[in-house]
Amino acid sequence: MALLCLLAGVLTAALLFPIAGGLGMASNHASESVTQGSANIVGGEVPAVSTMLDATGNPIAWIYSQRRWELPSNRIADSMKLAIVSIEDKRFADHNGVDLQGTLTGLAGYLKGVGDTRGGSTIEQQYVKNFNLLVNAQTDAERQAAVATTPTRKLREIRTALALSKALTKPEILTRYLNLIPFGNGAYGIQDAARTYFGIDAAGLNWQQSALLAGLVQSTSSLNPYTNPQGALDRRNLVLDTMIENLPERADELRAAREQPLGVLPRPNSLPQGCIAAGDRAFFCDYALEYLAQAGISKEDVARNGYLIKTTLDPKVQSSVKQAINSVAAPTLDSVASVMSVIRPGKDAHRVLAMGDNRGYGLKLEAGQTVQPQPFTLVGDGAGSIFKIFTSAAALEMGMGINAMLDVPPNFQGTGLGDSATKGCPPKTWCVRNAAGYRSPMSMTDALALSPNTAFAKLIQQVGVPRTVDIAVRLGMRSYADPGTARAYVPTGDESLADYVKRENIGSFTLGPFEVNALELSNVAATLASGGMWCPPTPIEAVLDRNGKEVDVPTAACEQVVPEGLANALTNALAKDTTMGTGAAAAGSVGWGLP
């Protein structure tokens, strides 16, 4: 008893003066630390699940670091509130954040050598400890410090708990506590606990279910109902016994609950985590996260902040894209990646409706899976003849008409345009030939549909490589202007691919031999269909925070990159590619009929 009295005086002094016997400056710093800590805990948010939706409102993926769904008090069953208070802090309604009697008992044990200062932890103190562990701690050292069994941590915890009790009401504290604490099997917070063990919402918990969950808080590992059902049942019944003692008016109901079996699901529910569980929509999911990261909302932010991410993905278009891609290349085809994106044109935004890859998104290499962002980064050996669009656009910009007649020789040889490995081609000469015989001359419109190589070799010689490259970048091939993108061809230096091609005056650019970002190439079509208005290809319609407030997602402004007349003329000319020539044949071979 004398020891407890002595400790009472020490504890009071510790609460008033954070560092006993220290310099005034040290005391001030400690006090400031406690004040800052309590402010962070009162105003801070706990990690919560972010949900990514498609354009119809159906989930694509869930992204989280801790599987938690925050609830208001009125969506948590009263039975759960009563159960947790009965077993964890029966004097919760009466104290000011610290249960002095229990705390002194714990400190006495520590000084006697027991080494355990957990005695008497109130719900406020547990909240502080768990918040520091689950929210504030970012390193192993910080996590160890958050649970260290030392008087220093305990006293700091007490000070913060007192401040918390002054800042919040008891119902607010209890709600926050139930939303924060872990319940085992990956469940954080009462809502996910109810879903994990019983497949219901927290509002529907009955007496025995609430008692089981309240009992798990003591030790989620040793009382796991799936590995230790008897221990979990005994603990649940102990919780019910305390409730019978504290709630005599509900004793009959609680005794009846005591006779019930555990009642948990055959196996704990879980929630798919991340893009890897999004199936055919995984590459789109990955792009959406990368897009947000570029806008200043990092993947770590998404995993912690409980966002509702509304995307532009159209599930019907996505399904059609995947079928078309797989018709061209099987998922397990070695060394081949067939990718495709569909973008809706617009003057104010270019919305990505679908994105696919013949290879599945995942880590099973034997099944052809990959997590490389192939659909939206520079990959592959080039897009081929579609790059003839850029040479045509450059010619139109110089004043040439869309129906201008082009020479189509069987073979072309040009100097100063790079060289080629074609058999019989002279040194330092670019040699081009056609895959078939074509009439000559031919209108540019027909040339775009039939794709004779020599016509466009002569055209890029006429309009110039630099002009062609520049208009390609403007129309949408923006990665080509990024520093370092020439490294696949020039291993050292930070030269962009665009600058490299212009410096070397590589005429074969018109035949599309270089790495390509397939998403950007799709966006070129959207730019032309939008009357020459380039907009960044966006997968995001809106992002809402956990309170339903829209989050700002900065993005590049749309730009008029070519005159509308030029864009319309080129778009009309390309319409022939849907009824004749190489484009129509390719689309028809896979049954692709969407515009």
What is the CATH superfamily classification of the domain at 69-259?
Biosynthetic peptidoglycan transglycosylase-like
CATH topology of the domain at 69-259: Penicillin binding protein transpeptidase fold
Secondary structure category = alpha+beta
What is the top-level CATH class of the domain at 69-259?
A: Mainly Alpha
Large-scale geometry: elongated
Mean pLDDT: 89
Largest sheet: 4 strands, mixed
Strand order across the largest sheet: 2-1-5-16
- Tell me the number of helical segments per DSSP (H or I, 4 or more residues long): 23
Distance between the termini: 85 Å
Approximate helicity band:
40-55%
What's the architecture of the domain at 69-259 in CATH terms?
Answer: Orthogonal Bundle
Report the uncertain regions: 1-30, 115-119
Number of strands: 17
Fraction of residues in β-strands: 5-15%
- Radius of gyration, in angstroms, nearest whole number: 33 Å
Q: Can you offer a commentary on this structure?
A:
With 595 residues, the protein is an alpha+beta fold. Among the domains are: 69-259, Penicillin binding protein transpeptidase fold; 385-514 and 563-590, Beta-lactamase (3-Layer(aba) Sandwich), CATH 3.40.710. 45% of the residues lie in helices and 10% in strands. The protein has helices spanning 2-16, 24-43, 78-88, 100-111, 123-136, 140-146, 151-167, 170-180, 189-198, 207-216, 229-246, 251-258, 282-294, 299-304, 315-328, 388-397, 444-450, 453-463, 465-475, 497-504, 518-529, 564-574, 581-589, and strands at residues 50-53, 59-63, 182-184, 187-188, 308-311, 339-344, 350-357, 378-379, 405-406, 411-415, 429-433, 442-443, 516-517, 533-534, 537-538, 540-544, 559-560. The strands form 7 sheets. A 4-stranded mixed sheet has the order 2-1-5-16. Helix 2 crosses helix 7, helix 5 (123-136) packs across helix 7 and helix 10 packs across helix 11. The N and C termini lie far apart (85 Å). The model is unreliable at 1-30 and 115-119 (pLDDT under 50).
